[in-house]
């Protein structure tokens, strides 16, 4: 059996190293997403420090434990017979007391050192900062840009520019949490309160996130997409979207249907009812009834459009009556669920 002991120890050590290397490589979802902001990079470094220390602790706990189990096995002794009496080891006891203290001190010192860099609010210049109002609602995210442009669920920001999100939740709603791992930490959106989340994305792309606070039956559908665009492309999009929304030619109504309505409703003729009832063509064309329900809620449906501007409401009712009502009549079109 003693010949097998080294092999057992090697297997345990290999398993521990495989876990730590897997975390470092990002396999199996053990590692965070590749950071695209300085703050997310600091969080990643803290994560890897904790992973390495955890792997070391695992080795120094599991390997001796396995050794003791093998060496101190019964070897055929009866249960009544006492095993060998082992005296204490003062040096070993001092070591296993001091080493955890040192490791915890290293973690605390590193986190305290990195924490200020996670939030950029103190480093941001007001002149170069783009401020966007973010409101969490059941079950979508609403973004309002400085020029009044409104977005649903998909947030667009410029690369290389400091962005400040003024996070809140609508009055009378519940707590939500804005979390896009590639951008940084998780920030709560609390009704009646505003919290700042400041970041500077360095790499264009689309980064996904979720609501990190359980908020109700459709919590899983409350996703986040952040599109980081080149600064010139973002400026062109923001100007063009402003003109389109003012003129009623934007896809805002479709965004509202997909992000707000279709998470609970299907169109008539498209399968069994979803969370809410299927919507028929006559309902989709009744703009006044739609506005009243969306603004005030009905039954278990919350006022998903409470506080919406006339521009937002007109975009939704126009899209429902002109685009979706014909599909509901014909029983065709895309699945609204």
Would you give an account of this structure?
There is one protein chain. This protein has eight helices and ten strands. The protein is of the alpha+beta class and 337 residues long. It folds into three domains: 4-69 and 90-118; 126-245, Cupredoxins -  blue copper proteins (Immunoglobulin-like); 254-330, Orthogonal Bundle (Cytochrome Bc1 Complex, Chain D, domain 2). The strands form two sheets. A five-stranded mixed β-sheet has the order 3-2-1-5-8. Strands 4-10-9-6-7 form a five-stranded mixed β-sheet, covered by helices on one side. β2 (140-144) and β3 (150-152) form a beta hairpin. α2 (38-71) runs antiparallel to α3 and α5 (252-261) packs across α8 (310-330). The protein is elongated, with a radius of gyration of 28 Å.
Descriptive key words:
Cytochrome Bc1 Complex, Chain D, domain 2, 17% strand, 8 helices, 337 residues, Immunoglobulin-like, 44% helix, 5-stranded mixed beta sheet, alpha+beta, disordered C terminus
Short description:
This protein is 44% helix and 17% strand. By secondary structure, the protein is an alpha+beta fold. The strands form two sheets. A five-stranded mixed beta sheet has the order 3-2-1-5-8.
């Amino acid at each position: 059996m003693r010949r097998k002991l080294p092999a057992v120890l090697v297997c345990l050590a290999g398993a521990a190293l495989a876990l730590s290397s897997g975390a470092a490589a990002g396999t199996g979802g053990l590692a965070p997403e590749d950071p695209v902001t300085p703050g997310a990079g600091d969080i990643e470094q803290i994560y890897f420090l904790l992973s390495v220390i955890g792997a070391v602790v695992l080795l120094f706990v599991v390997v001796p434990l396995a050794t003791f189990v093998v060496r101190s096995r019964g070897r055929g002794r009866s249960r009544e017979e006492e095993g060998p009496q082992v005296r204490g080891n003062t040096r070993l006891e001092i070591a296993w007391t001091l080493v955890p203290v040192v490791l915890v001190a290293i973690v605390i010192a590193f986190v305290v050192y990195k924490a200020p860099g996670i939030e950029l609010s103190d480093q941001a210049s007001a002149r170069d900062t783009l401020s966007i109002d973010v409101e969490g609602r059941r079950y979508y995210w609403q973004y309002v840009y400085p020029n009044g442009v409104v977005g649903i669920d998909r947030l667009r920001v410029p690369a290389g520019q400091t962005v400040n999100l003024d996070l809140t939740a609508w009055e009378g709603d519940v707590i939500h949490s804005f979390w896009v791992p590639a951008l940084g930490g998780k920030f709560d959106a609390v009704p009646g309160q505003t919290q700042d989340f400041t970041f500077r994305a360095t790499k264009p792309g689309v980064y996904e996130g979720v609501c990190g606070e359980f908020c109700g039956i459709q919590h899983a559908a409350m996703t986040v997409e952040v599109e980081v665009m080149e600064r010139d492309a973002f400026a062109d999009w923001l100007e063009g979207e402003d003109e389109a929304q003012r003129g009623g030619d934007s896809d805002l109504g479709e965004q509202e249907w997909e992000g707000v309505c279709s998470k609970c409703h299907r169109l008539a003729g498209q399968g069994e009812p979803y969370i809410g009832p299927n919507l028929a063509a006559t309902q989709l064309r009744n703009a006044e009834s739609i506005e009243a329900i969306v603004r005030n809620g009905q039954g278990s449906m919350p006022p998903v459009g409470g506080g919406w501007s006339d521009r937002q409401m007109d975009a939704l009712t126009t899209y429902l009556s002109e685009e979706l009502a014909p599909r509901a009549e014909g029983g065709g079109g895309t699945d609204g669920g």
